[in-house]
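Example record

The entry below shows one chain as it appears in the dataset: sequence first, then structure tokens.
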Amino acid sequence: MPRSTTLIAVIVMFVGPALAEGPYGAIAYSPEFDNSAAVADQPTEQAAEDAALKSCRDETKSKPDSCQVPLWFKSACGALARDANSDSWGTGWGGTQKIATSWAIKTCQQYGGKECKLKVAVCSPGGAATIPNN
């Protein structure tokens, strides 16, 4: 009996840390403050949304309810684009950051944006958020 208990403990010890990472990511955005937050490698959709919202709300303390989660994704990349000259913005997702960015820009343009540019992009699993200078 002690032998199987040891085996289970070893499996949990090696598998446990791998379960901490996941394929879910999300982007939160506050159009009012033009603040965005992106997260990756969360274990569930809800965890990704909660982490993105928390990060966005930390930056918009005067009005934390202005943050929303317009996009979550699983084993993919997500992006948010906005037009600095209007209220237009959009999100997109895809298998690569380039595809997600392209869809985000197209969505922003569909909502009236003329000069839509990438605001934030992230890939999950394993991706860090890309925040361009614009």
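Notes for this example: The chain has one domain: 21-124. Confidence is low (pLDDT under 50) at residues 1-20.
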